[in-house]
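Q: Two folds, back to back.
A: First:
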Amino acid sequence: MNRGDWPVVVTDRCAHSCAEAMGFADPTEARAWLHEQIRVRGTVTDRLPASVAGRRSRSGYFVVIEDEVLLPLAEDRDGAPQWIATYCVLFPGRRAAAVTPSSLRGRRLLDEVELLPHAVERFQQYCGGSADPALARRELYDVLAPTVRATSRPPRWSGTRPADFYLVAGDDGEYVLPCRVGGGRRPFDATTCIHRSRDLFDLEGDRLLARCLLGADTVPARSAGRACIERGGASGARLVWHRPAWAPARPAARWWLVLAPRLAIPVAWQPRHRSRPLIALGLVDRRPVLVRLLERLRRLRRRSSASWRPRPTGGAAGRAYRARRR
């Protein structure tokens, strides 16, 4: 049987999303409508109309009911020759948004936007979101809600693709979420989450340290942190979003630059300082006392070795040395 002729199974999730998006009384009514539309007008294809281009499915195939709905398809897990419709997406023109995003702010605006899984994943990856997707989604919502607004153009630093509009939130617009007309429960979908600091979290070692202003008053010349950096022991230095469990609270710290186990620098963030946006606020050393003592002894030994000079024994220098010793 040709793949295009396989029957389509409408899942509960697909029926539920259709009911919510199109206003059916319940999923049963929505499923019946979908079955009829699939039978009469549905086309299984891997080529989408321009108005819904860019949508994804597990199989790469969709049921297209022109100008009505799009059903992403998955193959049957048991290998049966049938398609599994996993969700229901409305065509952009099928339902007009009840509000204009630019007229809303805060939680009222977020009520109109669905945070898609990819946006939550990026929040987890670059913004310290929890490993649990459901919890991370709530965290992202709470982070955006106090300051979020909709703009027609993204900030220049974001480098994102064109979208219908953009959610911008945080201090100095540090979060950007491109949005498009939705096809599910809400009028709009946020497709991804971009944070202004994302390039910093891709760096480590010397490349990361080069982006941090290490003042003599915050990381002293003879401190463990400075010694770790100068002798190349911070090659694994990395930036972390949350305070390490062993470190004391530093209210002014935005992130933490971890140099070594139990050795870190709390940092502030000034994104307008492009070359060095990270500002060291001090040094936190919670390594065992014995480790710190041994390191101090090694530093003293190196300084002693550097100051030692061999005693001259011959020639004019030797005679001058012996004369001074008398």
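A: Second:
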Amino acid sequence: MKRNFNFCLLAGAFAVFSLSACNDDTMEISVSESQTENLKPEQPGELEKICYYVDQYWSSNAVLTTSLPNSTDTSFMNAQMTKIASLWGRSNPTLRFVNDPSSPNSTYNAISYSTGKIYYGYAIYADAKSKGGNIVNAMILAHEYGHQLQYIFGLPSVSESTARPNELEADGFAGYYLRRPNGYNQTSFAQIAAAYEFAQSIGDYQTTSAGHHGTPPQRRSAVRLGFLLGQYDLSAADFDYNFFYYYQGVLNGTYKMAKNSKFPELDAYMSQYLDELKQIQSGEISAEEFKELK
């Protein structure tokens, strides 16, 4: 997507406000050395910048900001962004937050841009945290970073007429991150059940829509598959290969049961979970049974 240059509002010391040009990627501002020195006693940390008008994917009243309302939440998300990117050997994309005080629910979204940006709405952050704690937002952020990997490496290797392969693979990337020792490092399914349930809750049944993300059971099983693949250290390309090797049931109703000769050790491990994955994506495993999986 094109890089937009907007106006930003700098809240300085002594409650003085001024408008200046703002780049929505870096949110850089022009401040003279004397102004910077004057601001230091009042605001020793990084200056808060707010950019007005985000882009066409958000409401006209939405604003782009470098922080969430709570500094602890901001620190958590920034730390997670660094950890997620580091897991894949990459540098951080630009992470910004979107607020719309006039219509809070309009920010119930998170978007990953092909220009190396992730915009995260206030509303989806608050709802995810209230429903499952920090781990749910870690999962969503890892999902959005999964799209960054897709942009970088030309993934997914499977395509269809809807966005489903892209979205389900991003769910898988998120599940992978939650399990990896150098990721969120949660090896017990019970520890991350809240994240799975949130993934299920935002599935849809608009199966012929171009923007279809996958049904609720499909999204749960995609995160589950990513979690299982987290048993092994994989590159993004190898993750893609294995994700679609085992997850054909989402796309065409059948699962590959042949031996995965490219990853024999992983295949031996995955073979014990194929029936389970089929039952999750078909809905045969209930929500309560799902929470009891090991």
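Q: And?
A: Residues 149 and 236 are 7 Å apart (CA to CA).
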